[in-house]
Amino acid sequence: MKSSLFRAAQLACGAALIAGAALYNLILLPRGITWIFGWIRPLMIGLALACFAWAFWPRRAVRGWAAPLIRAGILVIPVLGSLTVWWNGNSTETVFDRSPDGEYLLILTREEETGPVTVERPYRIFWKRKQAQLPQTVCGDIKRQWLENDICALTWEDADGELRQYIATYGDRGDSVSYLD
To answer: What is the spatial distance between Cα 119 and Cα 103, in angstroms, rounded to a whole number?
Structure first.
């Protein structure tokens, strides 16, 4: 009885993780909302695979010193495998910069070394959404400086070697003027 409840809990956990990944793909991605950290999605899939593998593992098949090693492998291998696949296929670089008062978070995502750079904002707890795309191609690093607690200046060189700037604004300026979306 105890093992069947444990197996049901593992299956329910795996199903919940798969359902969460499916809802993310069907609802959040079309709206431009993505995970704030790119490794969360493959981690969810790896954990779901580990839950299913653990639930269907024949408990009495292996006994002795090998059983704990095999059970640990069932948990670790799917998670590490999915994260490794993500790591090798990941071509984005994400930079986080928190405002001096810690209230706002600037997220810059670069698709490749000289690809387009997107300014993103946090959305809820674990997600981010696109705010703007920098108008010119970025070569090299982007310099960031917070001018106020809710204004960040970005400076970079484009492909022609010209200096470019972008102002990322957050917060409420008062008098019915708001930078919030």
So the answer is: 17
